[in-house]
Design brief:
alpha+beta, two-stranded antiparallel ribbon, 3 helices, 32% strand
Length: 144
């Protein structure tokens, strides 16, 4: 994902080394860093987020081409870890304003567990709640 737009353009924030070679499982859901965050990747949630992800991207992609590794939700904030055929994997952040989800920012790259505090700080600066910020950091640093 090199660029996205949703009434504005945002560059990827790359934290750590380039490249992303991890596979996420639902095991992180039980982690205390994700306590209180909705983390289920259901068919209904995928259908809800696919068009949002596709419309936020500068490089056009069909909603059916969006693949999800994680969908995190807390309050009015959501973060979806997505893969598409036109960009590298990334965690896209959305905020619900007046009942509509709006794209806020994307994070892409690779991070190690030692970078969790920086990741949490980055997400909180966007306005994401503490629990979502911590779960995001856990999710993108989880490796098998």
């Amino acid at each position: 994902m090199s660029e996205f737009d949703s009434h504005r353009r945002a560059k990827i924030v790359v934290i750590g080394l380039a490249g992303l070679g991890m596979t996420l499982t639902s095991a992180f859901a039980a982690n205390s860093d994700c306590h209180g965050v909705k983390v289920d990747v259901t068919t209904a949630r995928k259908q809800e987020f696919r068009p949002l992800v596709a419309s936020a991207m500068t490089n056009k992609v069909k909603p059916a081409q969006v693949k999800f590794q994680a969908i995190l939700e807390s309050g009015k904030w959501s973060a979806v870890y997505v893969s598409t055929p036109v960009a590298e994997d990334g965690m896209m952040f959305f905020q619900t304003v007046n009942g509509k989800r709006q794209f806020r920012e994307v994070w892409g790259g690779y991070a190690t567990p030692s970078e969790k505090p920086e990741l949490v700080s980055w997400a909180k600066k966007l306005g994401a709640p503490q629990d979502l910020a911590k779960c995001f950091a856990e999710t993108v640093t989880e490796r098998r």
